[in-house]
């Protein structure tokens, strides 16, 4: 139901008239939930924006599967990102920097998993090499490791990204590199 905008051309004559208008507006704005009581929420990751650097982590945007398709450099609508589900990976934290994205989560065996994609000129999403030289653009999500022992039960508390860096806060101290 489309709500008509309420335009008050003159001030309400009394407080009771104003209250009636407010009650009417609240009634029109009521939200109904039509899900069943046994409905299970689906955990999904949606992404959109500039795909040019690989920051969205969807290789078919930049390298279309069909030869007659042109690359998608800007995804203007939300796109359901299926990769974490296919990789058996539960996303807990997401952060985006200048042209790159970092995901933190848990794998099926409950181990800490870090994944990154996009610009990697300063190894902000880990060190990835191709034939001995560092990779500057990672267009598919790639796992990277933290210097933390999995036996300690390390948990990622938060992730933040900037222009060319990533900061990950954990509950355990790791080994310095």
Topology of this protein?
Blueprint lengths: L14 H14 L16 E6 L8 H4 L11 E8 L1 H4 L2 E8 L3 E8 L4 E8 L9 E2 L2 E2 L2 E8 L11 E6 L4 E5 L7
Antiparallel strand pairs: 1-2, 3-4, 4-5, 5-8, 6-7, 9-10
Please give the order of strands in the largest beta sheet: 3-4-5-8
- Total strand segments: 10
Cα Rg: 23 Å
Q: What's the N-to-C terminus distance?
A: 58 Å
Main beta sheet: 4 strands, antiparallel
- What order do the SSEs take from the amino end to the carboxyl end, as H and E? HEHEHEEEEEEEE
What's the assembly state of these chains?
Answer: single chain
Helix content: 10-25%
Question: What is the average of the pLDDT values?
Answer: 81
- Principal-axis shape equals extended
Strand content: 25-35%
**Which structural category do the helix and sheet elements fall into?**
mainly beta
How many helical elements? 3
List the uncertain runs. Answer: none
Give structural notes.
By secondary structure, the protein is mainly β. The chain is built from 3 helices and 10 strands; from the N terminus they run αβαβαββββββββ. The strands form 4 sheets. It has a 4-stranded antiparallel sheet with strand order 3-4-5-8. Strands 1-2 form a two-stranded antiparallel sheet. Strand 6 and strand 7 (133-134) form a beta hairpin. The radius of gyration is 23 Å and the shape is extended. The mean pLDDT is 81.
Key descriptive features of the protein:
12% helix; 34% strand; 177 residues; 10 strands; 3 helices; 4-stranded antiparallel β-sheet; two-stranded antiparallel ribbon; mainly beta
Structure in a nutshell:
The chain has 177 residues and is mainly beta. It has three helices and ten strands, in the order αβαβαββββββββ. The termini are far apart.
């Amino acid at each position: 139901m489309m709500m008509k905008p309420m335009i008050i051309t003159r001030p309400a004559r009394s407080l009771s008239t104003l209250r009636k208008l407010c009650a009417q507006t609240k009634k029109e704005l009521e939200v109904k939930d039509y899900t069943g009581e046994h409905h299970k929420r689906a955990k999904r990751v949606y992404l959109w924006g500039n795909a040019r650097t690989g920051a969205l982590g969807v290789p078919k945007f930049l390298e279309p599967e069909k030869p007659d398709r042109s690359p998608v450099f800007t995804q203007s609508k939300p796109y359901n990102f299926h990769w974490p589900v296919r990789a058996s990976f539960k996303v807990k934290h997401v952060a985006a920097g200048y042209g790159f994205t970092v995901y933190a989560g848990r794998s099926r065996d409950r181990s800490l998993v870090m994944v990154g994609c996009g610009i990697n000129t300063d190894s902000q999403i880990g060190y990835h090499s191709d034939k001995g030289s560092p990779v500057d653009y990672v267009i598919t999500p790639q796992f990277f490791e933290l210097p933390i022992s999995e036996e300690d039960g390390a948990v990622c508390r938060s992730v933040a990204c900037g222009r060319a860096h990533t900061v990950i806060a954990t509950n355990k101290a790791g080994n310095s590199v």
